[in-house]
């Protein structure tokens, strides 16, 4: 454990349940580094998660943590944030959790623009249930429930977030942790719905089913196939084919929900209660 | 009580329920519109910000239920309201609130089901769903008001019980009670007891979030943001709140959830007895049907028939003890209910064959009139 971030972990709860080579832990480290860099009060920070391997992260984090039901983390988090807007609220979710069962909550949360920081761990698979395809499994990918290859088309979840009204959208991966920490940190600074897709690797199910090699090979894939938005903007179209664009993809501030609600309450100052 | 024209008002049941929530200290509501419950949301959308509270219309009932649990964890007394189709969607996170012991109040203004059923037709068809709607063995508290006054007062009680026992409390209204207008006397501030959840007395480093501190078995609850950095999960867990798959730990957790309610039965069970002292025939009724039943008692008595009523105010846990005592004395029991026999079977199992039990069961959106009950009384006497 790294001494400078140890305070953010429930060290007595370790070791974690994740498989060797899983990159969930790397992403969690970036989250706490971003929290530290932003100087957030640990007692005023709540981390909410859904159900899945990635969502188990809340159990290891030394904050008020809320491990909810499958797909519903954003709805629980909205209740926490609206009831007490002083709290910094983070949501940890998986690709299945957020984009499948939680898809409706996702688009509406993005639209509402409550000040939530959402980190989606995208390993392109349902890890916890043993390797079924998710709405973010690429076409053609193999999964236990797509034994002949996936005939569905995946979401570009960042584009969906932008279309649904998210005011901050970024993508990173578990190889380039400096970039990942930075984009989470910048999301914290955005007062509104901030969404970060973190590309993760699940060597045990997604990797094995799709013959992507070992954990190190999967990280190398991230290194070799992701390009930053800045680089992508300079490249001709044919050189960008098949690449995954990372960095801050969208930032367009808009009125934040709890702030707007407070304005309504303020009109009634002098009522029964402030 | 000092009745003045200021605190006596004409009010609808749903509105009284919403005002009762504010009186109880509710400061958070999340919901999704559905007939015949919508007025509760409309009243609270207007009223909550006036008292510094929050209202939000969520994308569906699953999200509404989730949001009130999240809000309650920050210390806000929270509520949602719905009807059958939405009540089905609440069940997932209702179970979460039971397991993780988060106080909240869920109102179900019952309409005729199943499915979209009869949106404006009254029914008492969600009584078994209230008991067993979410999966797994779990305790629950469900309350059924029979008047507009009770919509107010029992909503206050529902919040009190949810805070006291850290459990979701279901307010089982029906379309008749929810939409009926009656005179109601609004209790003065301080007139009704208000209960708040127990807070931890120890420092954050000493806090074991699910460790009971007394015989009530209800652990003190810290609010998120107060420095008590604990974990809340829908997984079975030990006293620290962290999940375990040890059969001993999981079994103990389940047992405590049930035992805390068993130990509190004397605070939870509410019934009203009407002319039961010398009754030969006992009517067992609740919600809007208790009004027909009360009328039937009156008319039967006028004819010289010894009829009484046990009105169930608390439906779950079922008031078995009160019923058993009366079953010793009466010759027959009649259960009029606007469903196809949800409570009558529970009554039968509670009286264990000591007296014959008859149901008057109807699920067509019509209220069972006193005349039908009177006919049945003639038949069984
Ligand atoms: C209502 C409900 N349906 C299904 C499940 C089973 N389930 C648990 S985790 C999971 C998928 C998780 O996938 P993802 O969100 O991608 O997380 P990962 O495990 O990959 O991190 C499913 C389907 C559940 N717990 N609840
Ligand atoms: S199954 Fe996959 S996602 Fe889950 S812990 Fe193992 S490697 Fe990680
Ligand atoms: Mg996944």
Describe, in plain words, how this protein is organized in 3D:
Chain A: It holds the Pfam family TPP_enzyme_C. Chain A: Keywords: Oxidoreductase. Chain A: This is 2-oxoacid:ferredoxin oxidoreductase subunit beta. Chain A: InterPro entries: 2-oxoacid:Fd_oxidoreductase, THDP-binding, TPP_enzyme_TPP-bd. The complex is a heterodimer of chains A (about 270) and B (about 375). Chain A is of the alpha/beta class. Chain A has a single domain (about 20-255), classed as Thiamin diphosphate (ThDP)-binding fold, Pyr/PP domains (Rossmann fold), CATH 3.40.50.970. Chain A is about 35% helix and about 15% strand. Chain A has eleven helices and eight strands. Chain A has helices at about 25-35, 75-85, 95-100, 105-110, 155-165, 175-190, 205-210, 215-225, 230-235, 235-240, 255-265; strands at about 45-50, 65, 90-95, 115-120, 170-175, 195-200, 225-230, 245-250. Chain A has an eight-stranded mixed beta sheet, sandwiched between helices. In chain A, helix 3 (about 95-100) crosses helix 4 (about 105-110) and helix 4 (about 105-110) crosses helix 5. The longest helix of chain A is centred in the first third of the chain and has 14 residues, at about 25-35. Chain A is globular. The mean pLDDT of chain A is about 95. Chain B is an alpha/beta fold. Chain B folds into two domains: about 5-185, Thiamin diphosphate (ThDP)-binding fold, Pyr/PP domains (Rossmann fold, 3-Layer(aba) Sandwich), CATH 3.40.50; about 275-380, Rossmann fold (3-Layer(aba) Sandwich), CATH 3.40.50.920. Chain B has helices at about 15-25, 40-50, 60-75, 85-100, 125-130, 150-165, 175-180, 245-265, 265-270, 290-300, 320-325, 340-350, 370-380, and strands at about 10, 25-30, 55, 75-80, 105-110, 120, 140-145, 170-175, 180-185, 230-235, 270-275, 280-285, 305-310, 315, 330-335, 355-360. The longest helix of chain B has 18 residues, at about 150-165. Chain B is globular, with a radius of gyration of 21 Å. The mean pLDDT of chain B is about 95. The interface of A and B includes residues 58, 66, 78, 80 and 274 of A. Strand 2 (about 65) of chain A pairs parallel with strand 10 (about 230-235) of chain B.
């Amino acid at each position: 454990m790294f001494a400078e971030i140890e305070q953010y972990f429930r060290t007595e709860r370790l070791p974690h349940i994740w498989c060797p080579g899983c990159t969930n832990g790397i992403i969690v480290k970036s989250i706490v580094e971003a929290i530290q860099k932003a100087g957030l009060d640990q007692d005023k920070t709540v981390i909410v998660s859904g159900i899945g391997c990635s969502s188990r992260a809340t159990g290891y984090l030394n904050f008020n943590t809320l491990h909810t039901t499958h797909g519903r983390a954003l709805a629980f988090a909205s209740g926490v944030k609206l009831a007490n807007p002083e709290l910094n609220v983070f949501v940890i979710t998986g690709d299945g959790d957020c984009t499948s069962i939680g898809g409706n909550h996702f688009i509406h949360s993005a639209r509402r623009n409550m000040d939530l920081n959402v980190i989606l761990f995208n390993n392109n698979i349902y890890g916890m249930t043993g390797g079924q395809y998710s709405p973010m499994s690429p076409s053609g990918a193999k999964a236990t429930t797509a034994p002949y290859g996936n005939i569905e088309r995946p979401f570009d979840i960042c584009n969906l977030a932008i279309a649904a009204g998210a005011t901050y959208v970024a993508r990173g991966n578990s190889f380039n942790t400096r970039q990942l920490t930075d984009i989470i940190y910048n999301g914290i600074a955005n007062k509104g719905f901030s969404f970060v897709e973190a590309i993760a690797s699940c060597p045990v199910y997604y990797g094995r089913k799709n013959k992507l090699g070992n954990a190190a090979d999967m990280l190398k894939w991230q290194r070799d196939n992701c390009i930053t938005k800045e680089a992508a903007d300079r490249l001709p179209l044919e050189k960008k084919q098949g690449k995954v664009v990372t960095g801050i993809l969208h930032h367009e501030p808009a009125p934040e929900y709890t702030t707007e609600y407070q304005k309504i309450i303020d009109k009634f100052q002098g009522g029964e209660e402030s | 009580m000092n009745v003045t024209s200021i605190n006596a008002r004409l009010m609808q049941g749903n509105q009284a329920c919403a005002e009762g929530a504010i009186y109880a200290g509710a400061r958070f509501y999340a919901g999704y519109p559905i007939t015949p419950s919508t007025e509760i949301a409309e009243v609270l959308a207007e009223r909550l910000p006036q008292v510094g509270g929050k209202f939000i219309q969520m994308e569906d009932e699953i999200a509404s239920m989730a949001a009130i649990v999240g809000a309650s964890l920050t210390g806000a007394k929270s509520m949602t309201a719905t009807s059958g189709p939405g009540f089905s969607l609440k069940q997932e996170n209702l179970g979460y609130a039971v397991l993780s012991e988060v106080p909240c109040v869920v109102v179900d203004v019952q309409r005729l089901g199943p499915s979209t059923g009869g949106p404006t037709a009254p029914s008492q068809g969600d009584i078994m769903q209230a008991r067993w709607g979410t999966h797994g063995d779990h305790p629950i508290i469900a309350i059924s008001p029979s008047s507009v006054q009770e919509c107010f007062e029992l909503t206050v009680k529902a919040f009190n019980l949810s805070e006291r026992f850290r459990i979701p409390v279901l307010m089982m209204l029906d379309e008749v009670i929810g939409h009926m207008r009656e005179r109601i006397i609004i209790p003065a501030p301080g007139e009704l007891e208000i209960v708040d959840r127990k807070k931890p007395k120890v420092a954050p480093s000493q806090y074991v979030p699910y460790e009971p501190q007394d015989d009530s078995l209800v652990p003190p609850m810290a609010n998120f943001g107060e420095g008590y950095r604990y974990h809340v999960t829908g997984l079975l867990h030990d006293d620290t709140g962290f999940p375990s798959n040890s059969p001993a730990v999981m079994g103990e957790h389940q047992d405590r959830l049930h035992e805390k309610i068993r130990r509190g039965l004397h605070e939870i069970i509410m019934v009203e007895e009407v002319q039961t002292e010398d009754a030969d025939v006992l009517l067992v009724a609740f919600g809007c049907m208790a009004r027909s039943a009360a009328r039937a008692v009156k008319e039967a008595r006028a004819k010289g028939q010894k009829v009484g009523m046990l009105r169930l105010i608390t439906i779950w846990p079922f008031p078995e003890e009160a019923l058993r005592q009366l079953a010793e004395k009466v010759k027959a029991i009649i259960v009029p209910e606007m469903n196809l026999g949800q409570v009558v079977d529970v009554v039968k199992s509670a009286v264990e064959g000591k007296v014959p039990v008859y149901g008057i069961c109807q699920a067509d959106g019509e209220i069972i009139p006193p005349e039908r009950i009177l006919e049945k009384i003639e038949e069984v006497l």
